[in-house]
Design brief:
about 260 residues; mainly alpha
Amino acid sequence: MKLTPNRFAWIFLTILLAAMGWGGYIAWKVLQHPADTILSLENEIKFGGMLSEQILQQHGEDAVIHDPYADSCMQALHQRLMGALQGSKYQYHLTLLKGNEPNAFAIPGGNVFVYSGLIKFCKSPEEVAAVLAHEMGHVEKRHTVNQIIKQAGVGAILSYLGDGGTSQQLSSELINGFFSREDEAEADDFALLLLEKANIKPVMLGQVFSRMKDEHGDMEGVMNLLSTHPELEQRSAKSSAYVTGANFQEIPIAMDWARLQQMLP
């Protein structure tokens, strides 16, 4: 077949459009999940450790609750969830902080902060485990670091890593902000599956979120956990409708919940 100038032009245009389409797709993927192509896991974990130090400094020296029984309860929650989490690249660490708001949040690298207000609000350790599983979903899917990159830019993170975080402080709003609907749905799905594997009823996730929305929806520090997305009811319904496998067996997390609640400030 003779390659005429007209035919050559059409072939070139087809290749060019295909290349532009593929390039656009790659750019979209990078923008949606920048950490996957820009920030290594090693640097994410290092970044998370530095952010953890900043958060503790911002809360003050007396913010962390140090108590043998409280520590043992947090360890029990940690062990139950980590025992069900397979193949994770993160080593999670739970820190219990003084604070009236019923809230918890995760930062890049696997550090999860739990306010004493959440312990007092939840009716069982399984409800707290459901919230923690959701936060772990944000870490596993790298939602936390992706959000910071989108808002602050990768340059801010690399600069933060380069100077040890000494010359700048990232705002709490940036560290602990809102997630997209897609991110929330992905974290919910992760949590429901993890709870089933951990022998905890997945319905706990929807129950605690719905009750928190009803009782504390207008409280500062809570909405970052729930998000303001209108489909919260749908998310709770998905939790209620989740069907566990035939071999699922609920196993309570052993601890004196009333004792833990009463001893916290």
